[in-house]
C-alpha cells in the first residue's frame, strides 16, 4: 500500500482506539513540554517498531496500548531534517490543549495527524 496523506476511516479507527488508552497521559505530557519551555509544538510519535525519534513514553502493552508512543517536538523534526519548513507546520498546528499532534509511522500511513483529546465527562 502506498503512503496516502488521507487517513482512511478504518485506519483512523485503529489509531483512535489505541490513542484513547493513553490520551490523558499524552495530554499531560504535552502540557509539561510547553510549561517547561521545551517547545510550544509537541509531537507524539506512534509506531509499532523501535524508532530513534523523541523519548519513549509508553511501550506497547504498558497501558493496554498496541503502539509505542514517543514524545518529541517540531524543533527535533527540523534538526533531524524530517521536516523542511517549520513555519508551514506551525501554521497548521492545532491548539495543543485540545488536539494531540501524532506522527504515525506505519507501512500503511506515515504522516502527521491531529486527533482531539477525549472530552472529560
Quick structural summary:
With 121 residues, this protein is an alpha+beta fold. It has 3 helices and 5 strands; from the N terminus they run H-E-E-E-H-H-E-E. It has one domain.
Question: How does this structure look, described?
Answer:
The structure is a single chain. The chain is of the alpha+beta class and 121 residues long. It has one domain. The chain has helices spanning 9-35, 74-79, 86-92, and strands at residues 42-47, 55-58, 68-73, 99-106, 109-116. Strands 2-3-1-4-5 form a 5-stranded mixed β-sheet. It is globular. The N and C termini lie far apart (38 Å).
SS elements, strand count: 5
Gyration radius, rounded: 14 Å
Largest sheet: 5 strands, mixed
Overall pLDDT metric: 90
Individual helix count: 3
Strand order of the largest sheet: 2-3-1-4-5
Task: Assign a percent range to the helix content.
Answer: 25-40%
Helix-strand topology string: HEEEHHEE
Protein structure class? alpha+beta
Unreliable sequence segments: 1-5
How far from one another are the termini?
Answer: 38 Å
Q: State the domain count.
A: 1
Overall outline: globular
Instruction: Give the strand content.
Output: 25-35%
Helix and strand layout, with pairings?
Layout: H1 9-35, E1 42-47, E2 55-58, E3 68-73, H2 74-79, H3 86-92, E4 99-106, E5 109-116
Parallel strand pairs: 1-4
Antiparallel strand pairs: 1-3, 2-3, 4-5
Features:
121 residues; alpha+beta; five-stranded mixed sheet; 33% helix; 26% strand; globular
Amino acid at each position: 500500500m502506498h503512503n496516502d496523506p488521507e487517513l482512511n476511516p478504518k485506519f483512523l479507527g485503529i489509531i483512535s482506539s489505541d490513542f484513547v488508552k493513553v490520551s490523558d497521559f499524552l495530554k499531560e505530557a504535552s502540557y509539561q513540554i510547553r510549561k517547561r519551555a521545551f517547545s510550544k509544538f509537541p509531537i507524539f510519535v506512534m509506531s509499532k517498531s523501535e524508532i530513534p525519534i523523541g523519548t519513549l513514553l509508553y511501550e506497547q502493552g504498558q497501558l493496554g496500548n498496541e503502539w509505542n508512543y514517543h514524545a518529541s517536538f517540531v524543533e527535533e523534526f527540523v534538526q533531524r531534517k524530517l521536516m523542511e519548513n517549520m513555519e508551514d507546520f506551525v501554521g497548521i498546528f492545532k491548539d495543543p490543549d485540545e488536539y494531540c499532534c501524532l506522527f504515525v509511522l506505519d507501512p500503511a500511513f506515515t504522516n502527521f495527524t491531529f486527533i482531539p483529546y477525549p472530552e472529560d465527562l
